[in-house]
Amino acid sequence: MQQALETTESINPDTKTKMMIFFRHTAYFLVAGNEMTRQTQSVPPCKHATSKPAE
Protein backbone atom coordinates (compact mmCIF):
# COMPACT_ATOMS: atom_id res chain seq x y z
CA MET A 1 0.00 0.00 0.00
CA GLN A 2 2.83 2.36 0.84
CA GLN A 3 4.43 1.81 -2.56
CA ALA A 4 1.14 2.64 -4.25
CA LEU A 5 0.88 5.88 -2.29
CA GLU A 6 4.49 6.81 -3.00
CA THR A 7 4.07 6.35 -6.74
CA THR A 8 0.83 8.35 -6.90
CA GLU A 9 1.84 11.94 -7.55
CA SER A 10 -1.65 13.44 -7.35
CA ILE A 11 -1.87 12.93 -3.56
CA ASN A 12 -0.05 15.46 -1.39
CA PRO A 13 2.41 14.23 1.29
CA ASP A 14 0.21 15.20 4.25
CA THR A 15 -2.73 13.24 2.86
CA LYS A 16 -0.46 10.25 2.13
CA THR A 17 0.64 10.23 5.77
CA LYS A 18 -2.95 10.41 7.00
CA MET A 19 -3.95 7.60 4.65
CA MET A 20 -1.14 5.33 5.88
CA ILE A 21 -2.15 5.95 9.49
CA PHE A 22 -5.74 5.08 8.59
CA PHE A 23 -4.68 1.90 6.75
CA ARG A 24 -2.58 0.73 9.71
CA HIS A 25 -5.40 1.51 12.12
CA THR A 26 -7.88 -0.42 9.97
CA ALA A 27 -5.48 -3.36 9.56
CA TYR A 28 -5.07 -3.58 13.34
CA PHE A 29 -8.81 -4.01 13.84
CA LEU A 30 -9.09 -6.50 10.98
CA VAL A 31 -6.38 -8.66 12.57
CA ALA A 32 -7.88 -8.28 16.05
CA GLY A 33 -11.32 -9.29 14.78
CA ASN A 34 -9.85 -12.27 12.98
CA GLU A 35 -8.05 -13.38 16.14
CA MET A 36 -11.22 -13.04 18.21
CA THR A 37 -13.16 -15.11 15.69
CA ARG A 38 -10.49 -17.79 15.63
CA GLN A 39 -10.38 -17.97 19.44
CA THR A 40 -14.14 -18.38 19.82
CA GLN A 41 -14.19 -21.17 17.25
CA SER A 42 -11.52 -23.25 18.98
CA VAL A 43 -12.44 -22.87 22.64
CA PRO A 44 -12.26 -26.24 24.38
CA PRO A 45 -15.24 -27.26 26.49
CA CYS A 46 -15.10 -26.42 30.17
CA LYS A 47 -14.16 -29.10 32.69
CA HIS A 48 -17.82 -29.53 33.70
CA ALA A 49 -18.80 -30.38 30.13
CA THR A 50 -16.52 -33.43 29.88
CA SER A 51 -18.12 -36.83 30.28
CA LYS A 52 -16.50 -38.17 33.44
CA PRO A 53 -18.27 -40.67 35.65
CA ALA A 54 -19.62 -39.20 38.86
CA GLU A 55 -17.59 -40.05 41.94
Describe the structure.
This is 14-3-3 domain-containing protein. Keywords: Oxygen transport, Transport. InterPro entries: GlbO/GLB3-like, Globin/Proto. GO terms for molecular function: heme binding; oxygen binding; oxygen carrier activity. This protein has 55 residues and is mainly alpha-helical. The protein has one domain. It contains two helices and no strands. The chain has helices at 2-7, 13-41. The relative contact order is 0.08.
Short account of what is shown:
By secondary structure, the protein is mainly α.
SSE blueprint:
Layout: H1 2-7, H2 13-41
Number of separate domains: 1
Average predicted local confidence, pLDDT: 83
How far the N terminus sits from the C terminus, by CA atoms, comes to 61 Å
What's the helix count?
2
**Helix-strand sequence:** HH
Name the helicity range: 55-70%
Poorly predicted segments: none
Strand content range: under 5%
InterPro entries: GlbO/GLB3-like, Globin/Proto
GO molecular function: heme binding; oxygen binding; oxygen carrier activity
Organism: Aegilops tauschii subsp. strangulata
Keywords: Oxygen transport, Transport
